[in-house]
Amino acid sequence: MTFQPPRRFRTLAVVAAGLVALGGGAFAPDPLGADPRDGRAAAQENVLRIAAVVNGDVISIYDLTNRLSLVALSSGLELDQETQQRLLPQVMRSMIDEKLQLQAAAENGVRVTDREIEQQIEQLAQRNNMQSPDQLRAFVAQRGVNPTALRQQIEPQIAWAKYVQRRLRRDVRIGEDEIDEELARLAAVADQPQHRVYEIFLSVDNPDREQDVRQNAERLVSQIRNGADFSSIARSFSQSSTAPAGGDLGWVAAGQLEPQLDEVLQQLRPGMISRPIRTVAGYYILYVTDERIEGVDPLDATIDLAQMTVRPDGDDPAARDLVRRDLDQRAGSIAGCDGLQRYSDERGDASIARADGVRLGDLPEAVREAVAPLQTGQTSRAIDRGGPMVMISICAREEATANLPSRDEVANRLLSERLDLRARRELRDLRRAAYVDVRL
Question: Residue 250: what are its φ and ψ, rounded to 5°?
Answer without folding.
Answer: 80, -160
